Amino acid sequence: MMQNSETFEFVTLDVFTQSRFLGNPLAIVKIPRGQTLDQQLKQQIAREFNLSETVFLYEGESGSSERKIDIFTLSGEIPFAGGLYQSKPSDNWNAGPIRVRYDGQRDVAEAWIPHNVRIHETPVPWQSILRSQQSLHQNLDPSLQKSSETSEKLDGSDKGCPLVSIVKGMTFILIKLPRVYDLQSVHANAPAINESAIQVDEGWTSFTAPYYYAIESEDCEKRQTTLRARMVEPFVGEDPATGSAACTLGAYLALQRAEGGKTYTFSINQGVEMGRASRIGVSVTLDESGGQIHEVQLSGTAVLASRGTLMT
Questions:
Q1: How far is C-alpha 214 from the chain's CA centre?
Q2: Most buried among 16, 91, 147, 271, using CB within 10 Å?
Q3: Smallest Cα–Cα separation from 23: which of 301, 303, 230, 278?
Q4: How far is Cα 35 from Cα 197, in angstroms, rounded to an integer?
Q5: What is the DSSP-derived secondary structure letter of residue 81?
């Protein structure tokens, strides 16, 4: 038996849901004041949990509400995931400080997300996406099969799919499909989109993943939209809920509408096809010019799934 091992308390949560064993499961490992874990060990712990995200929550200084957080996926550390809700009023994420508020009456947590939104100059060609998702290509409406017409009929653009970062280091290919039904044809185990087709702007080297979505309903007058989405990433498979991708999508759609000083709300249903239905709330407020993001708010619910002690 190993001697002198350290122990750390942990919990697992199902987030963006009110029901256990639905939503997105993640682990939170509590790091007491004065203790640390090196990067390699944190990565090993994340792989041991084998969840989409493992969060390391550091105890703050006495009298301070601030907490430092590290977020790891199975493949590495990321600046922002968007799945943590049971945190203190002011948490310090690698993407920047984030303010969190819990609404006990609605049982909803709200987080104001740091952002540096970038719509990259070069979209990802539709043909590169369809080469990756062969079943999607095959199951689309026959009228969309002609390659010369695919882009325009899928998303109203012949330029491909936008490549958008919510912050440096966190980028998504936003892939709009014509019908909610078409999301069923997206395969989580499909090969990755060719790297040569993904060209982020200089200085924006980043984690990048595709985010497929379709509009379920839209009220333009109230600026409210309900969407269905899927996030698949070859190295980790499918994610039941991706707050960072949802914020990226909400920010992009709000900027396309460009009404200065207005707030747009998005309800994003994700994880349905994999049996872990999640509901992500995103609210985006534009500045008075309508050309910049003033505020991004992420909201959702979470339930405790388990708790225990981790030994290192």
A1: 16
A2: 16
A3: 278
A4: 43
A5: -
Give the number of C-alpha atoms closer than 13 A to the C-alpha of residue 273, restricted to the C-beta side: 19
Composition of the chain by helix, strand, coil, percent to 5: 20, 40, 40
Phi and psi at 275, nearest 5°, equal: 80, 20
Longest dimension (CA), the chain: 66
List the Cα angle 212/283/57 in 5-degree steps.
Answer: 85
Whether the model clears a pTM of 0.85, i.e. scores above it, the answer is yes
The total of other beta-carbon atoms located within 10 Å of residue 259's CB is 11
HSE, CB side, 13 Å, CA atoms: give it for residue 37. Answer: 27
* Contact status, residue 236 vs residue 75, Cβ threshold 8 Å: yes
* Three-state SS annotation for 132-177: HCHHHHHHCCHHHCCHHHHHHHHHCCCCCECEEEEECCEEEEEEEC
88-129 pLDDT tens trace = 444 444 556 788 898 888 889 999 999 999 999 999 999 999
Rounded Cα gap, residues 9 and 25, in angstroms: 17
